[in-house]
Design goal:
The chain is α/β, with parallel strands linked by helices and about 180 residues long. The protein has 6 helices and 4 strands. A 4-stranded parallel β-sheet has the order 1-2-3-4, with helices on both faces. The longest helix is centred in the N-terminal third of the chain and has 29 residues.
C-alpha cells in the first residue's frame, strides 16, 4: 500500500520534496489495564507507518539528494504522560527516529526534523477539554493560557519545509504555548 501511494505521488508530481508524517491516534487507559490490541494499533499508525512511509519516500529523496521530512512528535516525546502508554512510546519513537534518520540522511541532502505539539484542541484531546478539572490544570501550566489550534503548527512546518532550514537536522521543535519551558 505504501509503495502504491509513493508511486502515485511520483507519477503525478515527478518528485517528492516534502513528507509530513502527521497520522496519529491515541488510546487512554491505565497502564496496568492497557490491551495489546490498543498498543499495537497505536504503534502501527503512529510509528510503524511513519517509518515505512519515510523509508519509501526517502529512497527517492536520497537519489535526488534533496528532501525534507517533517515528523509530528509530541511533548510526550520528552515527558511520560499519564494513561497514554502506547502514545507516549510511539511519540518517543518518532523523536528517536527523527534523530536517527537525520544522522543517516543529512549528508545525502535530506533534512529530517520534527514538530512536538503540546496540548491542542483536536479530537485527541476532547476528553481532556471536557473534564473541567483536567482542563483547568492543563491551562494553568501553559504560559500562553490557551489550548493550541491546529493552525499554530503551520509556521513551524513552513520553516522546516523551506530552504531557511537547510542546515537544521534532527531538531524537535516544541509548539506548545510554553509548556516545556515551565
Amino acid at each position: 500500500m505504501i509503495s502504491a501511494v509513493v508511486d502515485k505521488a511520483l507519477a503525478q508530481c515527478g518528485q517528492i520534496d516534502i513528507l509530513v508524517n502527521n497520522a496519529g491516534i491515541i488510546r487512554r487507559c491505565d497502564a496496568v489495564d492497557f490491551s495489546e490490541a490498543d498498543w499495537d494499533e497505536v504503534m502501527d499508525v503512529n510509528l510503524k507507518s511513519a517509518f515505512f512511509l519515510t523509508q519509501a519516500v526517502g529512497r527517492h529523496m536520497i537519489a535526488a539528494r534533496h528532501g525534507k521530512v517533517i515528523n509530528i512528535a509530541s511533548m510526550l516525546s520528552f515527558q511520560g504522560g499519564v494513561r497514554v502508554a502506547s502514545y507516549t512510546a510511539s511519540k518517543s519513537g518518532i523523536a528517536g527516529l527523527t534523530r536517527l534518520l537525520a544522522n543517516e540522511w543529512a549528508s545525502k541532502g535530506v533534512n529530517v526534523n520534527a514538530i512536538a505539539p503540546g496540548y491542542f484542541s483536536t479530537n485527541n484531546t476532547q476528553s481532556l477539554r471536557s473534564d473541567e478539572g483536567r482542563n483547568r490544570e492543563i491551562l494553568a501550566r501553559i504560559p500562553a493560557g490557551r489550548w493550541g489550534q491546529p493552525s499554530d503548527i503551520g509556521g513551524a512546518a513552513v520553516f522546516l519545509a523551506a530552504s531557511a532550514s537547510d542546515y537544521v537536522n534532527g531538531a524537535i521543535i516544541p509548539v506548545d504555548g510554553g509548556w516545556m519551558a515551565r
